[in-house]
Amino acid sequence: MIFELSAEERTRLGSPASKKFRQSGAVPGIVYGAGKKNDHILLNHIELAKHMRHQSFYASLITLVIGKKKQTVLLKDYQLHPFKAQIYHIDFKRVNENEDLIVSVPLEFINAETCDGVKIDGGMVNYVMNSLEVQCLPKYLPSKLVVDLQSLRSSHSIVASNIILPKNVKAVCLNKGEDLPIATIVTNAPSEDTATPTAEKTPTPVVPAKNTKNTPKK
């Protein structure tokens, strides 16, 4: 998915100015990196919020249009109001097309409800990670990574090396020699009644009446 955002230059800086911008429906932001000076910008809150509803927005290349100037950026950080549905501030980093990126790419899990560990073993999926850090050139950056859970069984895990990565994309953890768990199947511990039959449910052994009181419990 291709994302494009329109922005305008922000000439007034500081908290009082930012407060007025927010009241007018704008989001203050900054663009930095690639050896260039920072650009202070304003974005339309409605347009930005619409893009941020897409999970892929957080790991995709974004075309940022400031006036007549276009630049390719990545979302690096954002702040939300503590209790209002309002984006307070947003940071973008310029992308150098010839330099590797390290980005946390969202994971999309499929076949969770029908996987063997759920249907056969009666367990449930435990999601250990919801994104995976990858390293690649910008042109190879995937917007998401699909994780197929169909063959996952109880007491087994899907790990980073099980994920099929696009060409020229590497998992950062594998580069470090760490094959991190992504998802597992967990089962509830058996109840006491299921695990160990109680005395009432255990057949009483036949013994002479005179020895009944001294018979040890099973």
Placed side by side, the strands forming the largest sheet appear as 1-3-2-6-5-4
The total beta strand count reads 13
What share of the residues does DSSP label as strand, in percent?
Answer: 35-45%
Poorly predicted parts: 191-218
Oligomeric state: single chain
Shape: elongated
Q: What would you report as the Rg, rounded to the nearest angstrom?
A: 28 Å
**Average pLDDT for all residues:** 85
> How many helices does DSSP assign?
5
Give the proportion of residues in helices.
Answer: 10-25%
Largest sheet: 6 strands, mixed, barrel
Describe this structure in words.
The protein has 5 helices and 13 strands. With 218 residues, the chain is mainly beta. It has a 6-stranded mixed barrel with strand order 1-3-2-6-5-4. The longest helix is centred in the first third of the chain and has 9 residues, at 15-23. The radius of gyration is 28 Å and the shape is elongated. The N and C termini lie far apart (66 Å). Mean pLDDT is 85; it is low at 191-218.
Secondary structure elements and pairings:
Layout: E1 3-9, H1 15-23, E2 26-33, E3 36-44, H2 45-52, E4 62-66, E5 69-80, E6 87-94, E7 101-110, H3 116-119, E8 124-127, E9 131-136, E10 145-148, E11 157-159, E12 170-171, H4 172-175, E13 181-186, H5 192-195
Parallel strand pairs: 1-4, 2-6, 7-10
Antiparallel strand pairs: 1-3, 2-3, 4-5, 5-6, 7-9, 8-13, 9-12, 11-13
Brief synopsis:
With 218 residues, the protein is mainly beta.
Name a few traits of the molecule.
218 residues, 6-stranded mixed β-barrel, disordered C terminus
